[in-house]
Write a structure and sequence with these properties.
This protein is an all-alpha fold. It contains two helices and no strands.
């Protein structure tokens, strides 16, 4: 019966460890879910930023085209149209259109720079998140391996031992009862003789 008590204590101790491992696994799952959600949001942001960057690049090329067109126009005697609205331009409007394009290009340059920096920050954060995701997944696998390859088999083995101890005690009690019955029958037989 001492063995039974020791085995019960070992089972209880290992079931407590198992509960702690399951709690840690749930915690890791929660962290993993939050990290994966943030990764998804970061990827979505990157797609939007890439689209905005493409738009900025197209705007810059358009403005460069307007400015270069003004420079290379030279002495051509061509009716000029505004690249924005398609309307005919007079000499003074042509100059203001080129000037407006230069001003717009100057305003666009810092936006492109800021967007590039923001994209780099998001990519850096995404790399940190992906590393965190890999670490959490590795921890989860390690916990599940410990649960499935160490703790559960140990508990199952201890339960089997406990059952064997109980069976042995039961067998011993039955043998003792049989011996007591035999002694009673032997006494009755001797009394009859």
């Amino acid at each position: 019966e001492v063995k039974i008590q020791e085995t019960l204590e070992l089972i209880s101790s290992n079931e407590h460890i198992l509960d702690e491992l399951f709690a840690e696994n749930r915690s890791i799952n929660d962290e993993l879910l939050a990290v994966e959600q943030e990764i998804s949001e970061s990827n979505s942001l990157l797609k939007k930023y890439d689209s905005l960057n493409t738009q900025y690049e197209a705007d810059a090329k358009r403005l460069e085209f307007v400015i270069e067109g003004e420079v290379h126009k030279g002495g051509l005697d061509v009716t000029m149209e505004c690249p924005f609205c398609g309307g005919a331009l007079t000499k003074s409007v042509e100059e203001s259109c080129a000037e407006a394009a230069k001003k717009e290009f100057i305003k666009l340059a810092p936006k492109i720079k800021d967007l590039t920096e923001t994209i780099q920050e998001v990519k850096a954060r995404l790399e940190v998140l992906e590393n965190s995701q890999r670490t959490l997944r590795a921890r989860k696998i390690a916990i599940l391996d410990k649960i499935n390859k160490e703790i559960k088999p140990l508990i199952d083995n201890l339960k089997n031992q406990l059952q064997q101890y109980k069976d042995a005690i039961e067998d011993s009690k039955e043998a003792s009862m049989i011996l007591q019955q035999e002694d009673i029958y032997n006494l009755k037989l001797q009394s009859i003789k």
